[in-house]
TrEMBL record:
Record keywords: Hydrolase, Membrane, Transmembrane, Transmembrane helix
Entry protein name: Class E sortase
Region (Disordered): 1-26
Pfam family for this entry, one: Sortase
UniProt entry tagged with the keyword Transmembrane: yes
Alphabetical list of InterPro entries matching this protein: Sortase, Sortase_Class_E, Sortase_dom-sf, Sortase_E
This protein's record includes keyword Hydrolase: yes
Molecular function via GO: hydrolase activity
Transmembrane segments: 31-59
Active site residues according to the UniProt entry: 152, 221
Compositional bias (Basic and acidic residues): 1-13
Top-level taxon of the source organism: Bacteria
Length: 254
C-alpha cells in the first residue's frame, strides 16, 4: 500500500474559500436564469391583464354605455313623436328619460337625462338627476330650485369627460318634450369634497347665489380617472322656448 504524501493531500482537499466546481456553478446559474425568466413572464402577464382591464374600463364600457343610451334615447324620441298633438309635442313624459342635456362647450352632443344618480343608472351612458341626498327640482315643475345632475367623467359613456372646458357665460340647454330651457353658466368649482352636498341645495349659496331661482348644477368626479373629489358647474335659467313641430333648436345650439 502506497504511502499518502503531503502533496497528494493538497491535491485532493479543497482549500478554504476555493470556488465550487464549474458544474455546480452552471447549475446554480440555470436556476437563477429560470427564476428570472419565470418572474419576467409573470410581470408580462400582469401587464397584459392590467392593459386589458384599462381598455375595458376606458373604452369598452364607453361602447356598451353609448349603445344603451342611444337605444333609450330613440325610445324617448319615438314616444314624444307618437304623442305629439296638433298643437305641439305636448306634456313632459317622466317615465323613461325626461329630456336631453346639450352643452356645446363639452362637444358631446345630446345627453339623455334619467331619474337617479346610482351607478346602475349612470353606467348606461346617461346623466341622472339627484333624488338623494338633495332632491333636484325639475324644470318642467315651474318651481324655483336646483336642477342638479351627475354623470361619469371616464368610462361608461363619460358624458361629462370635458366638463373642464365649460367657461362662465357658456350656455347649457335642457330639452324636454315641449320646452327648451336655456341656462347660462355663472359659477364653477373645480374641486370640492364628494361629501359636499351644499352644492346641490335649492339655493346653491356656495356658487354665490343667495335668493331662490331656477338653477342647474352639473357634477362629476375629479381628477379624471379618479373619484376623490367633485367638479361642479352652476348655471341659471335665462329663458325658455316652446318646442315647435320641427323641434328647431334655440340659437345657442345653432
Amino acid at each position: 500500500m502506497a504511502a499518502t504524501t503531503d502533496t497528494d493531500h493538497e491535491e485532493h482537499t479543497a482549500a478554504p474559500g476555493t470556488p465550487p466546481p464549474a458544474g455546480r456553478r452552471r447549475g446554480a446559474g440555470r436556476l437563477a436564469a429560470l427564476a428570472v425568466s419565470f418572474l419576467g413572464e409573470l410581470l408580462i402577464t400582469a401587464g397584459l391583464v392590467l392593459g386589458l382591464f384599462v381598455a375595458y374600463s376606458l373604452w369598452w364600457t364607453n361602447v356598451v354605455a353609448d349603445r344603451a343610451a342611444d337605444r333609450q334615447a330613440e325610445r324617448v324620441r319615438d314616444t314624444w313623436a307618437r304623442e305629439a298633438g296638433p298643437s305641439g309635442p305636448g306634456a313632459l313624459d317622466t317615465k323613461a328619460g325626461i329630456g336631453f342635456l346639450h352643452v356645446p362647450a363639452m362637444g358631446a352632443g345630446e345627453v339623455l337625462v334619467e331619474k337617479g344618480t346610482s351607478s346602475e343608472i349612470l353606467n348606461d351612458g346617461v346623466a341622472g338627476y339627484y333624488t338623494d341626498p338633495v332632491e333636484a327640482t325639475l324644470p318642467a315643475s315651474g318651481e324655483k330650485g336646483n336642477f342638479s345632475l351627475a354623470a361619469h367623467r371616464d368610462g361608461h359613456g363619460a358624458k361629462f369627460h370635458d366638463i373642464h372646458k365649460i367657461k362662465k357665460g357658456d350656455p347649457i340647454v335642457f330639452e324636454t318634450k315641449d320646452t327648451w330651457y336655456v341656462y347660462k353658466v355663472y359659477g364653477i368649482l373645480p374641486e370640492t369634497s364628494k361629501y359636499n352636498v351644499d352644492v346641490l341645495a335649492p339655493v346653491p349659496e356656495e356658487s354665490g347665489r343667495e335668493e331662490a331661482g331656477h338653477y342647474i348644477t352639473l357634477t362629476t368626479c375629479t381628477p379624471v380617472y379618479t373619484s376623490r373629489y367633485r367638479y361642479v358647474v352652476w348655471g341659471e335659467l335665462v329663458r325658455t322656448e316652446k318646442v315647435d313641430g320641427d323641434r328647431t333648436p334655440p340659437k345657442e345650439l345653432g
